[in-house]
Amino acid sequence: MPGPQHRQILIGVYVAARAEALTATLAGIFENTPLPFSLRLLPDPADETGAEALQARFSEHPGIEVLPGPAHEGPAACFNRLVSVPADIYVFLENGARVTPGWLELLLAALDADASHGLAGPSTNRGWNEQAVATGCGATQDALWDQADALAARYGKACVPLEPLHSLSDFCYVVKNEVVAAIGAADTAYAQGPCWEMDYNIRAARAGFRGVWAQGAFVYRALPCPQRLQVEGSLLETNKHLYQDRFCAWRSEAHHQPPPYHAHCAGDQCRYFAMPERMRIFMPLAGPALPWVLPAPGPVAPLLSCIMPTRARPEFVAQSIRYFQRQDYPALELIIVYEDDSDLPADISDARIRCIRMPPKTSIGAKRNEAVRLAQGELIAHWDDDDWYGEERLSRQAAPLLHNIADITGLNDMLFMARPQAEFWASSRTLFRRMFVENVSGGTLLFRRSLWEKHGHYPATSLREDADFLQKVLGGGARLCRIPGRDLCVYVRHHGNTWKFKEGHYLQQNAWTLMPQPEFLQRDRDFYFPPAAGAQAAPVQAAQSQPLVSCIMPTADRREFVPQAIRNFLAQDYSPRELIVLDDGRDSVADLIPAHENIRYVRLDRKSTLGAKRNIACELARGELIAHWDDDDWMAPGWLSSQVKALQEQGADICGLDKVFFYAPEGRRAWQYVYDGRSPWVCGGTLCYRREFWRSAPFADINVGEDNAFVWAPQHKRIVINPDQHLYVARVHARNTSPKETLNRRWRSYPAEQVERLMA
Predict the structure, then answer these.
(1) Is 631 a member of any domain?
(2) CA-CA 20 to 30 A from 123: which of 136, 169, 189, 734?
(3) Three-state DSSP class for residue 268
(4) 475 and 547 inside one domain
(5) pLDDT tens, position by position, 598-626
(6) Whole-model pTM?
(7) Within this chain, do residues 101 and 192 fall inside the same structural domain, yes or no?
């Protein structure tokens, strides 16, 4: 199957009731689905009058394709309409449902976790089966965000099969194309009632596909309308009987009298249940429904005016023009508002670009007002001169406006580039909401020009003028759609930013995660990090003013790991260091130890616990500082320098990582372990501490957990977190001293290729 970015994802919204909730459902899809997708509406009106009402409702959202059918067919028939359209992934979503951040990524991760996984569903607040875990969730936007964050933190990418009855619910039903190819259509005999999805789940299971519940994904369900409850209630017993007729082999046998129906099916616990040789697994699909699309009242792609206030940044302006020229939105203009000729690059030859000069020291707000006043477009987009933009940014942000789902859009969930340090940071979703008004970056707003005309102009300020404008138009009734911006925009941080804050530390340090450079930035890397910039090395502190660090490496029968651990030590850019290797294995590794003045090898004459070996090494250490040097992990050349810096600058007793990359080379799998406990903690393999503190709290004489006991010792201490997560990768293998419970909620799957690039 193609990768997530290249799969054809088709989302179908089943509209049989609560048509007034359609806008909220569509807005949620656009707000929380960063992957490319196609959208279809699946109407199922009760009668012809209902069909006219639905068409009137659909007309409010021009440009969205509708797959029509006869009135009152039921969800199975609407599902069949959806899967008759070619796609790799089908998402059948009931109207009134509200998806939340991460919903689709987690559902796809559940499908990708095993080749046998063919169907998936999320957690929810309302339902008849195991998926209803958030029954107390409120309907406000904040409540949905908080619930999504809580489930994602608790379960991550974990998924569980729903057996023995294969009972995935149909409110959000995600199906792989391979399943449709194997079993075909859903059974429309269930009409408007329940059980059709259980029928489909069971047939898929007998064809070799499991239905799985992605526990970390969350989709909120609105209260069902009374009419739907009445229809489903009236068909419940009928459909339960139909379900048993389909799958109970005992009922298909010859009997003197018809066997009775059971109140509840026992599923796989019954030997008569869903016997493949006595059931129909494949049902043919009818031909695809002929779609119709309500045309937009104006041009399909109205002119979009990008506005760029700038001052004294000609190199940024030139690069930003390149991003403008890459955009896939077809009708564009760019208005650059500047103060001096030196603000602009030498040659701007694109006819779509206009440059407007204003007096010196004009505020950013005033520049934005002048740009909008002169704009010819129906739509306006902020185009900040110093940020990175992906080529789909404008088309993705304009879509909710063109479908009349929103009046203004903005981006969230973006990466932050700390340009001076060549670092990339991601904030948690909760922290992003704290940092940005209405959970969107003001520099990414895209809106109807009529909002500016109706609700007033930007304030004449150069700080948060965009946020003030946003709050003003929302106060006037404008509808906001928040678009995931991870691959659409990078917030570039540099010395000239108007808003000053420290990436990786601002507001809540443990809510920031250091990220590898994103692949999409590769072709623009030389602009932000010119090769020549690397030639200017920071002045090195005199060796005599730096403390000696004793790296301690207990080992036993790890011959395959020891050479690389020594190479990692010798590659360190921190000069005053020594390595103490303590070996109590059956197979001595003395022959692997180079003759080096900074490396000492100690052969122990008896087997000792890991805690005892650490204590012996600390006794032998000559350094003021002690660093753990696990024999099977990878440390970048700057690792020791970063540890000493963290310890010394903050006057701490212990430092290390509370977010650690783990890599299993045999299966090419990777994770990031993220500690979220209340007591301060750092990972044992990453410990660096003062020798004097160790004397007050030596290691326990145990093999597993001696490092945690040391960190949590009752002695008074100051523990600090080293922010340089990218300099250390722990290895996962069959002989780890402590087991790696990667299904624990603190273990989060991570792209293996990105961890491999760190180690390269």
Answers:
(1) yes
(2) 189
(3) helix
(4) no
(5) 999 999 988 999 999 999 999 999 999 99
(6) 0.68
(7) yes
466 is a domain residue: yes
Residue 82: which domain range? 9-225
Please name the residues in contact with 649: beta carbons below 8 A apart, sequence gap of 6 or more. none
Give me the DSSP letters along 157-207. T-EEE--SS----SSEEEEEHHHHHHHBS--GGGTTSS-HHHHHHHHHHHT
Query: What integer pLDDT is reported at residue 6 of this predicted model?
Result: 67
Residue 315 and residue 345 in contact, taking contact as beta carbons nearer than 8 Å: yes
DSSP-assigned letter for residue 273: B
Query: In Å, how far from its chain's centre is CA 124?
Result: 19
Q: Is 705 left (phi over 0), alpha (psi -120 to 50) or beta?
A: left
Question: What is the model's pLDDT at position 535?
Answer: 42
Other C-beta atoms lying within 10 Å of the C-beta of residue 589 = 21
pLDDT of residue 272: 66
Residue 532 forms part of a structural domain: no
Nearest partner of 231 among 45, 79, 43, 14, judged by Cα = 45
pLDDT in tens, 457-469: 999 999 899 999 9
Which segments in the chain show pLDDT lower than 70? 1-6, 49, 164-166, 249-250, 252-257, 263, 266-269, 272, 274, 289-290, 293-299, 532-545, 737-740
Residues 576 and 496 in one domain: no
> Does the CA dihedral 712-714-715-717 come out positive or negative?
positive
Residue 242, CA atoms < 13 Å, CB-side half-sphere: 17
From 426, 514, 508, 501, select the one nearest 724 (Cα to Cα): 514
Read off the DSSP letter of residue 454: H
Sort strands 446-448 and 408-412 into parallel, antiparallel or unpaired. antiparallel
Return the bridge partners of 659, or none. Answer: 674
Using CB atoms within 10 Å of the CB of residue 223, give its burial: 0 to 12 exposed, 13 to 18 middle, 19+ buried: exposed
Query: What's 502-541 look like in SS3?
Result: CCCCCCCHHHEEEECCCHHHHHHHHHHCCHHHHHCCCCCC
